[in-house]
Amino acid sequence: MKLDAKTPSGPIADKWEKHKFDMKLVNPANKRKYKAIVVGSGLAGGSAAASLAELGYNVDCFCFQDSPRRAHSIAAQGGINAAKNYQNDGDSVYRLFYDTVKGGDFRSREANVHRLAEVSVNIIDQCVAQGVPFAREYGGLLSNRSFGGAQVSRTFYARGQTGQQLLLGAYSALSRQVGLGNVKMYPRTEMLDVVLVDGHAKGIVVRNLATGKVSSHAADAVVLATGGYGNVFYLSTNAMACNVTAAFRAYKKGAAFANPCYTQIHPTCIPVSGDYQSKLTLMSESLRNDGRIWVPKAEGEKRAAGDIPEAERDYYLERKYPSFGNLAPRDISSRSAKEVCDEGRGVGDTGFGVYLDFADAIGRLGEPVIRERYGNLFDMYERITGENPYKTPMRIYPASHYTMGGLWVDYNLESNIPGLFVIGEANFSDHGANRLGASALMQGLADGYFVLPYTIGDYFARVGAKNIQPDGAEFKEVEKAVEERTRKMLSINGSRSVDSFHKELGKIMWENCGMGRNKQGLEKALQEIPALRERFWKDVKVLGDNSEMNLSLENAGRVADFLEFGEMMCLDALDREESCGAHFREEYQTEEGEALRNDKKYSYVAAWEYQGNDKRPALHKENLEFEFVKLATRSYK
Amino acid sequence: MNLILKVWRQKDARDKGRLETYEARNISEHMSFLEMLDVVNEQLVGEGVDPIHFDHDCREGICGTCSLVINGSPHGHQKATTTCQLHMRHFKDGETIYIEPFRAKAFPVIKDLVVDRSAFDRIMQAGGFVSVNTGGVPDANAIPIPKEDADKAMDAAACIGCGACVAACKNASAMLFVGAKVSQFAHLPQGKVEREKRARAMVSQMDSEGFGNCTNYYECEAVCPKEIKVEVIAKMNREYFRAATTKI
Predict the structure, then answer these.
(1) Distance CA A305, CA A353 (A)
(2) Is residue A636 very low, low, confident or very high in pLDDT (cuts 50, 70, 90)?
(3) pLDDT per residue as tens digits for the range B31-46
(4) Chain-wide mean pLDDT for chain A?
(5) Which of A115, A337, A528, B244 stands 20 to 30 A from A31 (CA)?
(6) Does residue A139 belong to the interface with chain B, where contact is any CB pair within 8 Å?
(7) What CATH number is attached to the domain comprising A300?
């Protein structure tokens, strides 16, 4: 397999302009001859489906939720970055580019990141035009806040519901196109496989989740906007149904999967309270603007937070990283929290928590200001924990949140399978080994509104309209395989529920491939996962049948894929014998306990190619060249 | 704590449906309502009984997927709280809890507690948007918007489209939902351009989906997990009246 990133030549700031000119165009009158399938309706998928339809292409859009408005982008709280420099504080496209490459610990592709920073400014314009109610100042202009890993205020927000408002913006654009008949929307429909015709992605096989009916759909190109795989840990901030299935099925059809071990653990989530827990809730990183993070200096401290005097508190982020303080990047903040808890200084019943304290900010600004900024987050915290964060500090702990890894794509966001495009969190390209806060929304919308609509046109123009129908042998064969797999899952009738397997996998992954990884743990996980997978296929219990709504069956398919995918994640983590960003190999750290990169050996994208069931996938390397940003050790001190 | 559940079971849209009784044992007060149902479902699967089907996804109160009428109230009796954020500390040991689907003619049951809310999507497709294409829009700060207007738009835009307002209403009216979107755009200069067309199209679609009209009981506001105020209905009525008297 040859991985050609197709990065345009020339100065970094001119690459995208040049590439846009070099790409072929489809004549406006010919656009209606092409059809695109878009799988997923979040920020990336929703914006792409709407934009493609506006251009004149036919679009079929699929989502497993009951409405496209419910995609998990909706849960993003804090904000979206854009290099507008509205605050006159020294921001620029180049600074956003630089911060993102540095934040990603120099493991992303420079040209992609620069393009992201360039189009960031268009996104804000677009969303405002759609009627997205961003926060504003009294003068009527847009307001900004700061986020981790940046020293400028470039984050636009809509209270604590930025993801919701941006998604509803994309959903409104999509709804308009559905109403106009340019997009055919398939809600409650899950993609179960991709179909290749002559080596090009030309369709998908789906299951209607309300009726169980399996069907094929054909198009001139397939766009996957299917999100991340954080639920491999079972407990995460992802929605319950978020899964790796679409991406993993594409991988099994030959698409390379890049950097699966880069998984972001978010520092500010509500801690786990018991075994029954089904998901973890994020408390937006924006809280770190005004909240101070601390633990007691002494181990085994039992006093209530308010009874611990100032002198006996350790504000460890402010102590260790004086210039970024509580706004240190996510990977660093998460690891520091784990460190102090491992030392026995954690708080709460379980000892796995640290305080996020607003007492100073409330004293300085008054409760009404804090309520205005974070009211909904404080309410949510109180609903879940029964504690009032205006009176006692929040307790937080890191949790799986976002996955930087994903299907490998070139500069055009096309995978190594021609005609298969991958956008948003589902691809790997822009965040390197660690994503900065407020950059996920930016990337999802950049891909969907401003990148894919150009690059897919170039593909269409090069290969021409094929008018493929979903009844050829290629489709029937995939449909048969999908139905066979479903039948198999229903026929096992073992003794354990699907969830019990998912929980067990999650525990293996969290312990061995979570915030800290080492050779021994990863090798152990690589023994345990295949054994668990074998037990799953012998002993899982899936009730009901395939001709109705069947939640355990849906879940079984997703968990089965996680059971294979988790293994690849551990392989990748084992192969990468360095620490970078969110990938922290305990063997490779500086004397101060910071991530120790090995640029000489590991400055590459690890792209894994499927070789057959139970066979080790083949590793391909895309070398990362840093022409514009000088490789350096990240310092947030 | 231990609880008795009376749960609506219905195989599909054609089935008549009935309440079944289940026991929920050893429930922690820290569990969410849906985690309690997860525990019951694990137990049912163990016994070979088809698990209770209910809609849910983000479990943090923002996606609008979860529903359920709990003891007669959509999303339960806790104020400003979705079912997924409702915690068991608000229930008493030994309590009997009735769990039913959101009921409305326009929300047919698919299975058990899962209903089809696609009528909401069709209302949005009729007019819940500003007609701009991607690209070619002015700079985001080109049109200043008074903070008060932006805040009012945001208050309305907070709607999660869950449908509790419909389930609570004697008339199964969707006017709080539709009013929220109409109101959001009516407060913004970007939305004002096609305000008449929008009000007409959305109201007309709402009527044809079989939703009723508002007769001022305000049950919708009382159950709305995002505390959308009935003033959005008044705003929608004004927008609709304005549209009715404007030639377009």
Answers:
(1) 12
(2) confident
(3) 999 999 999 999 999 9
(4) 96
(5) A115
(6) yes
(7) 3.90.700.10
pLDDT of residue A84: 98
pLDDT tens digits for A577-608?
999 999 999 999 998 888 999 999 999 999 99
Note if A330 is an active site residue: yes
pLDDT one-digit tens code per residue, B45-77: 999 999 999 999 999 999 999 999 999 999 999
Give domain limits for chain B. 3-110, 118-244
Please give the average per-residue pLDDT across A524-552, as a whole number.
96
| Residue-level pLDDT at B248 | 65
> In a mutagenesis test of the A interface, which of B82, B129, B139, B143 is the best target, namely the one with the most A β-carbons within 10 Å?
B129
- Same domain as A478, residue A395: no
CA dist., res. A72 & res. A68, Å (int): 10
Residue from A330, A335, A345, A597 carrying the catalytic annotation: A330
Specify which residues A293 forms β-bridges with: A356
Whether the Cβ atoms of residue A226 and residue A71 lie closer than 8 Å to each other: no
**A380 contacts B61? CB cut-off 8 A:** yes
What pLDDT, on the 0 to 100 scale, is given for residue A284? 85
Residue with tokens 């129908």: A469
Direct distance between the N- and C-terminal alpha carbons of chain A, in angstroms, rounded to an integer: 42
Least Cα separation, residue A277 to chain B (angstroms): 7
User: For position A62, what pLDDT does the model report?
Assistant: 98
CATH number at B3-110: 3.10.20.30
DSSP code, position A414: B
The domain containing residue A283 runs over which residues?
Answer: 266-400
So what's the pLDDT on residue A374? 87
Of B31, B128, B134, the CB nearest to A175: B128
Domain tally for chain A?
A: 2
